[in-house]
Structures are given as C-alpha cells and as structure tokens.
Write a structure and sequence with these properties.
Zinc Finger, Delta Prime, domain 3, alpha/beta, single chain, binds zinc ion, Rossmann fold, 15 helices, five-stranded parallel sheet
C-alpha cells in the first residue's frame, strides 16, 4: 500500500509502519541517504501518519493530513535554519515549543532537513533534547552527510537508510508525476543515479544533446588517435555533478552496446531511440573490450565521487578506454 506518495524505500517505510502499529516509535530518527532520494518526503509522510485521524495512516484526506499537506499543521514543524546553517536560536525555539503539549495533533513532529547544517552550538543544544526526550514529541533529522554530524547526536537517533532508488522507481515517478513519456522517463532515469531530485534537475534538452554527442564520439572514434581520444575528457564537463551525470551516460552507452552484442535485441536497450549509434559501437568493439571499458568508467566515477583530480581522472580514463 502506498505510504504518502513515496516511491521505493519499502524497508525504512515498513520499519516506520511497524513501530507505529506497535506504538513503539523512537524519540528521534535519522533518515540518511543520497540527495534527492526522498528522505524529506518520507519524513513528511511519517509526520502525517503519526497525526492522521484515519485507521490507515496517512490517509492524506482527513483534516489533519490536509492541514499537513498544506503546511498548516501546528504540530508538524520544519526547522528551516538560516541560509546555509541551522543555528542555536532555531533549536532553542524548538525546545520552547516542547514545553507545551501538542496543540491539536497526537504527536508533535519536528523535521530538521539537512541536519548536518547545524553548527556546533546548535548541535550541542539539540543533544540536550535528545538526552532528555519530552513525551509527545518526535524528531526527524535528515542528511546526505551523516559523517558530518557529531557522534553524540548520531548515537541518540534511530538510523534509517534511504538507498538510491531502483531505476524503475525513478522512471515511474517521472511518468506519473512529471508527464514524461515512457521512453524519455527511462532514458533520464538511467542517468539519474537513483535520485528523483537528480532526475528533476536534469535538463532534458542538454541531457539529450550530451548523450547524442557521446554516442557519436564512441561509435566513430579512431582508437589509434590519442588527440581524438583525449577530446572525450574535455567534453564531460567541469563540475563534479555534471561529470558524474555524463559518466553515467557513458556507462549506459557501453551497457547498451554489450546488450546489443549479446542479444541483438534493440528493445532491450535503455537508449533504444539511438539504436543505430549503439549498433555502431557494438560493431566496433568486442564484448571483452566493452566490459573493460565499463570497469574503467566505473573506476573513474568512484574517483570523481571521492574528489580525485577531475581533469587527471578524465584524461586517464579517456586514454585507457578502447
Ligand atoms: Zn489522515
């Protein structure tokens, strides 16, 4: 059954549901996982569920759910912070509210998005609340950088991991919510790295142009020409996120070429609107070389992800690719 319009994340959702059914929710949760994967959506749905007036929460139809969906629920509080930081003032305010019972709901829920934005003073203040929880209140911290939070905070929250979404879930979201046609949804989802947020950020036009450029390059490059091979490195972008997105495109190109070689069935391709170019790449390389190339691209992706020198990583990769 759907839980507040969340895509994927069956495991953390079933843990939260189970805790609610047994009346054994924790005082504080840490929802962690990559950006754009649905942590805040899940936190909001959990907050609605805790205050829902229907037997199968969150119903998203009762008065409480509707207030929450319109951000008018007095007992569901999101701590926005100031600009880049969550400062002590915001935590003090939260503590002040906790002195009173929930105004109309069953449980007051505080959501701290990107909780790693707390500065040291704010984190220290929050620690006190975590050490001495006040009944009727529940905290949800979300973060894509759990390592940036103090151990003292981490150790007092129940941790729930939000894994990257399966490609199919991202595609389903794009079809249902963003009116993508099936093909565009699949193509964009293939390069979104399991993040709905990332998929939404991707400009479809830029993305499609980049994909075409990479495929044309791959299907026609002369492996004996080092200058031509290095030119690939230059076209993959300058910023980390942009490079990673383009490397995911590159990886999908090789993946498709391999599928084409092994099955000869264009309907199995992710980039099936580009069958001619994928076929040309599959014709140019033996299967073994495509597998090697996949490993080389994966290695570059993890190096870039770990902040290795971008130019050096991309040039090394371009030289190694067959
Ligand atoms: Zn409801």
């Amino acid at each position: 059954m759907a839980f507040g319009g969340i895509y994927g994340h069956e495991k953390p959702i079933s843990i939260l549901r189970g805790a609610m059914e047994k009346g054994r929710t924790a005082h504080a949760y840490l929802f962690y996982g990559m950006e754009g994967v649905g942590k805040r959506t899940a936190a909001a749905a959990f907050a609605r569920a805790l205050n829902c007036l229907d037997p199968s929460p969150p119903c998203d139809a009762c008065l409480s759910c509707r207030k929450a969906l319109h951000h008018h629920h007095p007992d569901i509080v999101t701590i926005a912070g100031e600009g880049q930081f969550i400062k002590i003032g915001a935590v003090k305010e939260l503590q002040e509210q906790m002195k009173f019972s929930p105004r109309e709901g069953i449980r007051r829920v505080f959501i701290l998005p990107e909780a790693d934005r707390m500065n040291a003073a704010a984190a220290n203040a929050l620690l006190k609340t975590l050490e001495e929880p006040v009944a009727g209140n529940l905290l949800i911290l979300t973060t894509s950088r759990p390592h940036a939070l103090p151990m003292t905070i981490l150790s007092r929250c129940q941790h729930l991991r939000f894994a990257p979404l399966p490609q199919e879930e991202v595609a389903r979201f794009l079809r249902d919510r963003e009116d993508f046609d099936a093909e565009a949804a699949e193509v964009v989802a293939a390069s979104a790295g399991g993040s709905i947020g990332k998929a939404l950020e991707m400009n479809r036009e830029d993305f499609l142009a980049m994909r075409k450029g990479i495929l044309e390059y791959l299907s026609s490059v002369d492996p004996a020409n080092p200058i031509q091979r290095l030119s690939l490195a230059g076209r993959l972008g300058a910023e980390r996120e942009e490079i990673l997105e383009n490397l995911r495109i590159l990886r999908t190109c090789y993946r498709d070429a391999l599928v084409m070689r092994e099955t000869g069935e264009p309907q199995r391709l992710i980039f099936r609107d580009q069958t001619v170019l994928v076929q040309a790449l599959a014709d140019r390389l033996p299967g073994r070389s495509i597998l090697d190339n996949l490993a080389i691209v994966e290695a570059a992706m993890s190096a870039i992800d770990q902040n290795a020198n971008k130019t050096l990583t991309l040039e090394t990769m371009a030289i190694k690719l067959l």
